[in-house]
Amino acid sequence: MEKKLKFREDGTFVIVQFSDVEFIDAEDRDPETPLLDSITKATMERIIAIEKPDLVVFAGDVTASERCKSPLQSFRSAVAVAEESRVPWAAVFGNHDSEGNLPRNRMHEEQLLHTYCVAKADPQGVSGAGNYVLTVDDQKGNAAASLFFLDSGDYSQISAIGGYDWIRRDQIEWYAAESRQLAERNGGMPLPALAFFHIPLPEYDEVWRTKVCEGHCNDWISSPRVNSGMFAAMVEMGDVMGTFVGHDHANDYCGMLHGIRLCYGRSTRYVSYEDGVRKDKFPTGARVIRLTAGDRQFETWIRQRDGLVAELPVHEPDAH
User: Fold this and answer.
1) CB–CB of 220/208 below 8 Å?
2) Mean pLDDT across the chain
3) Residue ranges of the Calcineurin-like phosphoesterase domain (predicted)?
4) What is the dihedral angle through the alpha carbons of 106, 288, 260, 214, rounded to the nearest 10 degrees?
5) Are 285 and 268 in contact (CB under 8 A)?
């Protein structure tokens, strides 16, 4: 039986986004690994207890699979906090999830076996693993919002280009078709939507350079070198209000571009390493998103591992 997501009686729906938790079922030789896993788990437990979310999203790099004895066990350990808290959850995958000996479609199959997972099986003929859409119903049982989950891949399959992978054309066509169907069921109006994937779109660089943003940008914006048109499709469909990614651990900013709010999460495991030494530039934590039924907007903030809401700097675009 399909598991339903529903707005609360007060009309709100709260999502907690954990990014880059990178659990490792070790044969890892780094003595810090078990400690980091336990700190990350405690961070997630605390934030879930404070925010009491209606949905938890793991926004990629759920495991550091290349360093894992068992990527599947690492995945199970990562999502155990949501399972033990009995909170509905869903995951997308990042580049580190498929660096080990386990294909990402097997990891997607694994998440579908969990009791509180609300993800769906992949559509036929669509690239990647972990492409699905969920709806959130209002009190009358009508879909009032949609949540798109997309596989942004790992590394470019074209050696002459290199760098990170991109959302493929068939995925964009799938998204547009789903968006169109949801709008038709909504009386022809685009259904308010959010989109989750791991690797930031090239437009994340544009919004930081050209618009007022809130938050930090301490990493390179590690977008693919090819712009496959996902952002243009979302602008054209008119449904997506915000996109949410991970990947660049020391970035946690949000900015508005052409009516869509481009947001990083807050890295949940670590923020940065310099010369092999962990040097977090700010506390780890999670992004929190609050939707309200009937509104074409959302609220969002960063909840830190210490339980506080982060005070984020305002970034003004370069005048040049």
Assistant:
1) no
2) 91
3) 41-249
4) -120
5) yes
Helix, strand and coil content of the chain, in percent to the nearest 5, comes to: 25, 25, 50
| Residues 249-298 pLDDT 10s | 999 999 999 999 999 999 998 888 776 667 788 999 999 999 999 999 99
What is the pTM (predicted TM-score) of this model?
Answer: 0.94
Over its C-alpha atoms, the chain yields an Rg (Å, rounded) of 18
- Tokens 């590394």 correspond to 155
Closest to 78 (Cα-Cα) out of 60, 66, 95: 60
**Encoded tokens for 268:** 């949940």
8 A C-beta contact, residue 307 and residue 48: no
State how far the Cα of 190 lies from the Cα of 296, in Å rounded to an integer. 10
97: nearest Cα among 36, 161, 152: 152
Query: Pairing between strand 314-315 and 260-264?
Result: unpaired
Note the pLDDT tens digit of each residue in 63-75.
876 777 788 888 8
* DSSP notation for 83-100: HHHT--EEEE--GGGGSS
The full DSSP string for 18-77 is: EB---B--B----TTHHHHHHHHHHHHHHHHHHH--SEEEEES--B-GGGBS-HHHHHHH
